[in-house]
Structure prediction request, 182 residues.
Amino acid sequence: MLAIQENRKAVKYSKKELFRRVLWMPFSVIFRLSPRPCFGFRRWLLRCFGASVGTGVHIYPSAVIYFPWNFLIGEDSSVGEWALVYNLGIVTIGKQVTLSQRCHICAGTHDYTLPEMPLIKPPVDIQTGAWICADAYVGPSVTVGEYAIVAARAVVVKDVGAYSIVGGNPAKVIGSRTFSSS
Prediction:
């Protein structure tokens, strides 16, 4: 039997995290209402809340960054329209990464092996040059290797090797990425 009452009583966030969450709420609205081409403003706002944001990063206003202080993104990366970065745990995004529209990066889950199902916050790591395509899901504790591609609507629950192309539900290797010499 599940221990739902114990789950609800459990302390899931420190007082500092709760304070940051409350403070972020009105600023997340400002983030969302900022004009589409104001990438610099959104980078600045995320940095004000503890994010590590590289130069040339493009994050669209409809993207949701749940906890900026758990967000690290390298230079020249982008987070597309309506992308969801549910970063209860640390989400690290390398350089030149593309998170396409409506993808979901999830760094939070529950330990289903215990009746009280405590909240856990495992990291997600998306390495340099990777592309997470439209509507794809990348789950907790997953590393997406350098230059890998997660195909549209794929569901990734295990690590993806460098230069791999994965697709499906659950995601399986469907190819490998190569670059021409030109």
The chain has a mean pLDDT of 96. The first strand starts at residue 52 and ends at 53. The domain at 14-175 is CATH 2.160.10.10 (UDP N-Acetylglucosamine Acyltransferase; domain 1). The radius of gyration is 17 Å.
